[in-house]
Amino acid sequence: MLANHPKVVKTASTLIKTIRAAGAVITIITARGILLAVIIRNAPEILTRTFADGSSFRVSESFVRKWLHDALGYSRRKGTQAAQKLPSDWEDQCERAAIRRAYLIKEEDIVAALVVNSDQTQVLYAPGDKMTWAEKGAKQVAVLGAEEKRAFTALISVVSDGTFLPLQAIYSGKTLRSCPSSNSPNFHDLMNAGCILQESGTTTYWSNIKTMKNFVNKILAPYFDQQKAALSLPTTQKSLWIIDVWSVHRSQEFRAWIKTSHPSIILDFVPGGCTSVAQPCDVGIQRPFKHSIKRSYHEDVVSNILAQMDQGSEGMNIDTRLAVLRNASTRWLWNAFQTLNNQELVKKSLTRGYRQAFEHCRVRKWDLSYETLTGVTARAYLRDLRNTNPEFWKELTSSDFDNDLPPEDVPQPEDRLDDREFQNDNMDDSDVPNQVVIQSVINPSGEVQSEYEVSEDGGLVSKGGIMAEGYDNTAGEDVAVNVVEDKELGRGKRRKVPNRRYMGFWKHNDTTASDSEE
Q1: Which residues contact 299 (CB under 8 A, 6 or more apart)?
Q2: Closest CA to 203 of 248, 171, 246, 169
Q3: DSSP codes joined into one string, 308-322
Q4: Phi and psi dihedrals of 453, rounded to 5?
Q5: Most exposed: 180, 214, 417, 442, by fewest CB within 10 Å?
Q6: Does residue 215 surpass a pLDDT of 50?
Q7: Are residues 341 and 483 in the same domain?
Q8: What is the Cα–Cα distance from 438 to 323, expressed in whole angstroms?
Q9: What is the residue range of the signal peptide feature (predicted)?
Q10: Percent of the chain residues topping a pLDDT of 90
Q11: Contact criterion met (CB below 8 Å) for 238 and 231
Q12: How far is CA 129 from the centre of its chain?
């Protein structure tokens, strides 16, 4: 695809080498953003090509990997995290957890609006799989180290009835200066939506007991109180909070604090090592959240490089200072919050999708949807349990389920917070629209839009990118290209840019055209 455009190849290659030499981490998304910006400014007609199946060239991640390997000698670093290994008795554990949840809902008359699942995820400031420098004749230099680990934690919560709660973001540091500036983009939008941006109070960006208490006091408990008031329920009405067995969650200190400070909140723990199949946020929410973050970061890279090119800047670079990226994160979070909560285009499907996040947690004849846990089959099972499994019935009717928790001093998979860093980060190509990923999560067995297909790891990739990989010199069909005069380039100097409708795909919301395309 780039064989007939040596200027694009040379310019993009030089930029990537320069930026890497300046110490910036080159991820596949960073590289894609740089290459795309160069194409937009130097050969936009490439982006108007269509293939025989009707798909168009979108500079997919699969294409960029091949191009980086061939043009620069970069190679993809293998994933550092294997898929979660389930316990041998995971089905027994998850079935018991589902029955326990059905029992609590029945006995405490808990409505769907009072069942919440929360989950932490680590968000890298430079998302995407890392690339390793391997120039011919040069000593290999690995792109690893402290910069690669820079990140923040996002706490995501979804309700069984389809509601998406405000986000909490945790940043490394001990003062408010460690958090994004109040002047950062969309900061006040996040605040008005009830989101929390908080320093960790430590040298890491992990959640801890202090940040968890703040989340409960400022987001979770107020939400439960509002729902009880709206439904004319007493303030003593019980609610159910589903969380994993991370060491802070299962600690005696945190459990005792919940019982004392928020006695109406019942803690319901996902069995250890089973979050990939039994935690709704893991099953249905984290993937589109991470994808939205990834697209926002990619948009920033393209916009940044385009602006520098338009200004004629020498020694172009990507600013990777922590303060700059931290302030940029507020826009990423706001975009993700809107994508998963407020956008009219996806609101109906997302409500269904959030409910299905519970439904997709399945084991044997059970799933975690409110409809299943309160259905005829579940109620009949509970009625018969006294006779069919008296030991489990005795456990259910006891006053406390804490005995089922792993001891605090016995490590659990959920205690390794760094393992969560790469969850769902690289499943879907960054050129795949958010809504396409959301639909894939909602209906994983459904047909994929004709422009995309499912990769080996289960993510979505662009068919156009795959075709371009295999047929670099294949001529596609040209689509209309506009020629406009650019005042900054001077009189008589003109620049070709593609029709706007073919260019919005690099934006976070790919139906939005870029101002820089004019």
Answers
A1: 33, 506, 507, 508
A2: 171
A3: HHHTT-SS------H
A4: -145, 165
A5: 214
A6: yes
A7: no
A8: 31
A9: none
A10: 42
A11: no
A12: 14
Query: Which tokens belong to 303?
Result: 């916009």
**3-class SS at 120?**
strand
Amino acid identity for residue 298 in this structure: H
What's the predicted TM-score (pTM) here? 0.84
pLDDT value, residue 487 = 38
Distance from first CA to last CA of the chain, Å, rounded? 24
Domain contains 310: no
Q: CB 55: neighbour CB atoms within 10 A?
A: 21
**For residue 377, is it within any domain?**
yes
User: Which tokens go with 177?
Assistant: 């200066």
Number of folded domains that form the chain: 2
Nearest to 172, CA basis, from 191, 187, 150: 150
Specify the length of the chain in residues: 518
Report if residue 294 sits inside a domain: no
C-alpha closest to that of 239 among 114, 357, 363, 359: 114
CB 329 within 8 A of CB 152: yes
Q: Using the predicted structure, report yes or no on whether residue 219 has a pLDDT greater than 90.
A: yes
Q: Quickly list H helices, 150-273.
A: 187-192, 209-215, 221-230, 247-250, 252-261
- pLDDT average, residue stretch 349-364: 66
Check residue 280 and give its pLDDT: 86
Name the CA radius of gyration of the chain, rounded. 25
Say whether both 65 and 203 belong to one domain: no
Give the distance, in angstroms, between the CA of residue 80 and the centroid of all CA atoms in the same chain.
Answer: 18
Range of the domain at 96: 90-287+335-422
Helices (H), 421-516: 434-442, 463-470
| Angle between the N-to-C axes of helices 434-442 and 286-310, in degrees from 0 to 180, rounded to the nearest 10 | 170
- Give 114-144 pLDDT, tens digit per residue: 999 999 999 999 887 665 544 544 444 444 3
pLDDT at 357 over 80: no
Q: How deeply is 458 buried, as exposed, middle or buried, from its count of CB atoms within 10 A (0-12, 13-18, 19+)?
A: exposed
- 155 and 242 housed in the same domain: yes
